[in-house]
Amino acid sequence: MLSYPAAIPLSTRSLNHLAALIRTRRQQRRSRWRRLDPGRQALLALAHLRNGDPLTRLAAGFEIGVTTAWRYVREAIDLLAATADDLATAMTRIRLLAYAILDGTLIPIDRVANQKPYYSGKHKRHGVNVQVIADAAGRLVWASAA
Question: For the whole prediction, is pTM greater than 0.90?
Answer without folding.
Answer: no
